[in-house]
Write a structure and sequence with these properties.
The complex is a heterodimer.
Chain A: H1 3-17, E1 32-33, E2 36-37, H2 55-85, H3 89-114, H4 129-139, H5 142-154, E3 160-167, E4 173-179, E5 188-195, H6 202-205, H7 209-215, H8 222-228
Chain B: H1 6-17, H2 23-27, H3 59-89, H4 93-118, H5 134-144, H6 147-159, E1 165-174, E2 177-186, E3 196-203, H7 210-213, H8 217-223, H9 230-238, H10 241-244, H11 246-250
Antiparallel strand pairs in B: 1-2, 1-3
Classes of the chains: A mainly alpha, B mainly alpha.
Bound molecules: fe (ii) ion (2 copies).
The site of one fe (ii) ion has 7 residues of chain A, from helix 2.
């Protein structure tokens, strides 16, 4: 592990013990402070998901990519607030795709960090209870669901995400893919998401993305998914 | 641009199959291939060594990008075209329609990368100098004011892509009118609209730069200007869409 990793791990450890730290069980909303989005602390060290995901990828992904979404979201949110103040509807409409993209990037990554965990903290342990039951009802078994999920991931043409979602109308679960940073909103509730952008795996797996899709299940935090499932 | 239909893409692929008919003739009989075997495409060789674009694009990136990524688009395209030929033969119209998106994506990947390799060259080559494209550079200046403004506009377009995609300098011909435009396309959508000639393109998928530039895509966008093949750009600018796509005929 590089000194950079150690240093940021130490910072995170300090943050974790801070009394003002927001409880980690919440969703993306818990990372907004006074209207500003902030980069959430990772609930584990950058190197903790190895060998499924390297510390180098985790550090870049969290500290650079996610941070850029946060910074851009705050920037465009400010412009949006100005446009609203001026009753400039055209400007508001023009800004919406930017809010969708950068806000989506912030929401998606926040959920993603939460729904991963090192094996020492339960990563890869199969779901239990109602979520497990729902998966079995819909797919027959967890393995069958994973197979369908990986096929959905492999079928994404370009950048995007695959999600296990819950239909808020029927309560049933399904696998859905979303382009770029489109977030899971509206009729569906995000349960478990996997980032299929190339930056999520390229340093470790290059073009062999099927290997990444296979390996990531070893660090999926089903406990977090169970908390989202209603 | 992104609205270009799958059928116009198919037309290009089909017209390439018939080397002795013009694109116009082919346009009148686009779906008469039920009895034919599906066309098979193969990976066009790089016109330079894998390490020839260093230090701007690393050897490792070029090897993976050409040998793996481009090859995968071709493999998937060939499989989809074969399935399509079978669906056509079986008069399975639903099957044909369901194949269109996959064909568009993988054929787009093949077209885009084939054009991309050709519109780059080693920085030391005389073709990498803008003096190799006098007429094109003249119109760039007439359109954007000066080359610096053009590069700034191109950079802003490339960095504004949300997700995977490409940026292209496109010549658009409409009757006697002709203009240049900077166009971004998503995923592997190719530039195949009527009267459009892709002059040069820049791949903005993360696989195009990540191993070397990581999240620093602005540096990639700066550096790639050193390896643009202006001689090829000039030829495409002065030619027709069919001229630009001739590399694809060679890879069948
Ligand atoms: Fe990501
Ligand atoms: Fe590419």
């Amino acid at each position: 592990m590089s000194s950079t990793l150690l240093r940021s791990s130490a910072v995170r450890a300090a943050l974790r013990t801070s009394p003002t730290k927001v409880a980690r069980a919440g969703l993306a909303g818990s990372t907004f402070v006074r209207g500003k989005a902030t980069l959430p602390d990772l609930p584990y060290d950058y190197g903790a998901l190895e060998p499924s995901i390297s510390g180098k990828i985790m550090e870049l992904h969290h500290d650079k990519h996610h941070q850029t979404y946060v910074t851009s979201l705050n920037n465009f949110s400010e412009q949006m607030a100005e446009a609203k103040q001026k009753d400039d509807v055209k400007a508001q409409i023009a800004l919406q795709p930017m809010i969708n993209f950068h806000g989506g990037g912030h929401i998606n990554h926040t959920l993603f960090w939460e729904n991963l965990a090192p094996q020492s903290q339960g990563g890869g342990e199969p779901p239990t209870g109602k979520l497990s039951q729902s998966i079995n009802d819909s797919y027959g078994s967890l393995d069958a669901m994973k197979e369908k999920f990986n096929a959905a991931l492999a079928g994404i043409q370009g950048s995007g995400w695959a999600w296990l979602v819950q239909d808020t109308q029927t309560g049933s679960i399904q696998i859905k893919t979303y382009a770029n940073q489109d977030p899971v909103v509206g009729q569906f509730r995000p349960i478990l998401g996997i980032d299929a952008w190339e930056h999520a795996y390229y340093l470790d797996y290059q073009n062999r993305k099927a290997e990444y899709f296979k390996a990531i299940w070893n660090v999926v935090n089903w406990k977090a998914a169970e908390k989202r499932f209603q | 641009m992104t609205g270009s239909s799958s059928s116009s893409l198919l037309l290009i692929l089909l017209s390439l199959k018939f080397l002795h008919t013009t694109a116009t003739e082919q346009a009148q009989q686009p779906f008469e291939f039920g009895e034919m075997a599906a066309p098979t495409y193969s990976l066009p060789p790089l016109p330079y060594a894998y390490d020839a674009l260093e230090p701007y694009i690393s050897k490792q990136i070029m090897e993976l990008h050409h040998g793996k990524h481009h090859q995968t688009y071709i493999t998937n395209l060939n499989a989809a075209l074969k399935t399509q030929a079978e669906a056509v033969h079986a008069s399975d119209i639903a099957g044909q329609v369901s194949l269109q998106q996959g064909i568009r994506f993988n054929a787009g990947g093949h077209i885009n990368h084939s054009l991309f390799w050709q519109n780059m060259c080693p920085a030391s080559s005389p073709d990498a100098k803008r003096s190799a494209a006098p007429k094109l550079v003249k119109q760039i200046k007439a359109t954007w004011g000066d080359e610096e403004k053009f590069r700034e506009a191109f950079k802003a377009a490339l960095l504004g892509i949300q997700g995977s995609g490409w940026g292209w300098l496109v010549k658009i011909e409409n009757g006697k009118e002709q203009r240049l435009s900077i166009v971004t396309t998503k995923d592997q959508d190719p530039v195949v609209g009527k009267g459009e000639v892709p002059v040069f393109g820049i791949d903005m998928w993360e696989h195009a730069y990540y191993l070397q530039y990581l999240n620093g895509k602005a540096a990639y966008v700066e550096n790639i200007w050193n390896v643009i093949n202006w001689k090829t750009a000039e030829e495409r600018y002065l030619g027709t869409p069919a001229d630009a796509f001739k590399i694809l005929k060679a890879s069948m």
